[in-house]
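Minutes, project check-in
Item: structure for the 375-residue chain
Input as provided by the requester:
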Amino acid sequence: MYSILIAFLVLLSNIALGNSQPIRVALVQNAPYLTMTGHNFYCYLPTATATERTQTPLQAAIIRHTGAGFLLNERLVMGNTLECISGEGILSINDIPTQGQVRLLADGHKRLEVVETLPMDLYLIGVMQGEVGHNWPIEALKAQAIASRSYAMAVAKERHYAPFDVAITTRDQVYDPRIKIPANIQAAVLDTSNQILVYRGKTLKAFYHSCCGGAGESFSAVAKDLSPESKAPFPPAVTRDPFCHEAPAAHWKAEFSDAQVIGVLQSRLPGLSSLDQIHFNTERNGRVESVKLATRDHRTIQMTGNQFRKALGYETVKSTWFTAKKHRHSLTLTGRGYGHGVGMCQWGAHGMAEKGKTSTQILSFYYPGAKIVTN
């Protein structure tokens, strides 16, 4: 374990010596309490004196917030911000490993957030481990690294006023902070260090998804759910993608009983008791734009295709590109692709790399008009 840790710290020092900008990563959000373990770590207020910062070292702690202050192993520390640091660099929070220094924030509802500031490239290594397979072709990994870096930098600019830049879930990019790092993922990130995508003079918020199913979706599909500052210009969608047909989710099917669908949609439309009146409005590209439901007393509700997908579960309804068939007591969805379909298709990038395409060619295909620049 310690030999792995030493190798990892060497990597960290190499990254820190470069120009990799820092990024604030929200490791935990909206938690009622935290479980922290480590080797000789200290927790203190940002205003603490040098003496106060090095009082009794901790090996483990359970942390809550009372509304007035942090309850640290039943010891009250007044305030809404707490710094925790391990001089040995060994510190885990809710089983998430860190580099040994984090900031704890409390909201007005006794909920806790954990933010770690990392060099961008170290963060990206965790993203690569969470988003793609470590055994993928190196050019696909490089394309992913550049797209992910661009996305993170664009989001960080949007959230400069917030306590964090990125979350570690699909809200932003999935982040897996494993200590043991595959060599090709490390190479893909470091070989593209500081490279980003720029479109019409701005850092591109480079959306991507698992599998487009054969054709991309326009940016307008996700723009309706974004804040005004997020709606920067975006490249046109790929109208035909022949590279992702071997993806696991290139084609899929999901079946639901009426009771299952009614159960998840009743909160939106109380009184819904039948799916006899369910209508799907499909765009010209085959993706479901909206879903309309009605009760027997003629009350109706309309939701977007993505809202319908979210309600039934993203992992089951893998995209909005589906056709629906209503049976007597069930609903069958037959679909293509996995994700929103905007920007780079990860499995398409994999397919392009296997055919000998470079990361530059991959990114040019999925983000036409965007340029790779060194930041």
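Outcome recorded: Residues 1-10 have pLDDT under 50 and may be disordered.
No further action items on this chain.
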